[in-house]
Specification:
Blueprint (H helix, E strand, L loop, with lengths): L5 E6 L2 E4 L5 H22 L7 H15 L1 H4 L6 H7 L3 H14 L1 H4 L15 E2 L5 H10 L15 H13 L14 E2 L18 H9 L4
Antiparallel strand pairs: 1-2, 3-4
This protein binds heme C.
Heme C (HEC) binds next to helix 5, helix 6, helix 7 and helix 8.
């Protein structure tokens, strides 16, 4: 013990040994520094699906999917799609379906790549909001836009349609230029159905006002 060199700190007769930090500790320290940029890049570098927020959205979507049985099959008509555009949790499911299946052609935020830009007011195959669901289910342009009816749950088609409708007008920067015709704005969502059991009191009033994002 007394062999170890001493620092020249001494206070009230108490001296301090100059012991080196153990090798394992130093390597752990250096290792964690070396590891941190990799960790940061992986989780915070902007890659799709890795952030806590994305993970939460996916979990929420899975959870909502479990409720499909209870919800019954949604009909891909105007009112249903419009109503879904006012429900945040449902839009999130639509968003996850979109991120999983559609971004390769339509871009991460719907700005368009091989597929058309879905964030402007111009559409090729869509005149009314329910046409979105029809195009998604049946495809378009000789399968350049694939048909999803056999690959997605009917509710997923409705929810991804609502999501697609909701990103209209976001005009994502650097998006593909407009194709097709400019169409009229979506109609107002219909009032909530009486039969619906969801917690209507608090959530509804706020979400209903929200414009289709
Ligand atoms: C293989 C590439 C590809 C994939 C994957 C794809 N799309 Fe498309 N999509 C296209 C193309 C190309 C068009 C334009 C069709 C045309 O020219 O009429 C299109 C058109 C559309 C339209 C109609 C837009 C308009 O202007 O009429 C909608 C809505 C749409 N896609 C939604 C989706 C959704 C939702 C998904 C995922 C479930 C998806 N697409 C996946 C290529 C794709």
């Amino acid at each position: 013990m007394s062999e170890a060199p001493k620092t020249d700190h001494a206070y009230d007769g108490i001296e301090e040994f100059d012991n080196p930090l153990p090798g394992w500790w130093k390597w752990l320290f250096i290792g964690s520094i070396a590891f941190s940029p990799i960790y940061w890049m992986f989780y915070h570098g902007g890659a799709e699906g890795r952030s806590i927020q994305d993970g939460y959205d996916v979990a929420l979507a899975e959870n909502t999917r479990l409720q499909f049985a209870e919800m019954g099959e949604l009909v891909a008509d105007r009112d249903t799609i419009l109503r879904c555009t006012t429900k945040d949790n449902l839009l999130k499911v639509g968003k996850v379906v979109f991120k999983t299946n559609c971004i390769s052609c339509h871009g991460r935020d719907g700005e368009g790549k091989v597929g058309v830009n879905l964030t402007d007011n111009h559409y090729k195959n869509v005149r009314n909001i329910e046409d979105i669901a029809a195009v998604i289910a049946n495809g378009a342009a000789g399968n350049a836009m694939p048909a999803w009816a056999n690959r997605l749950h009917p509710n997923e088609v409705v929810l991804v349609s609502a999501y697609v409708a909701s990103i209209r007008g976001t005009f994502v920067e650097g998006g593909k230029s407009e194709e097709g015709k400019e169409i009229a704005p979506w109609p107002e969502p219909p009032p909530e159905e009486e039969a619906e059991e969801e917690s209507e009191d608090d959530s509804e009033k706020e979400t209903e006002k929200e414009p289709a994002q």
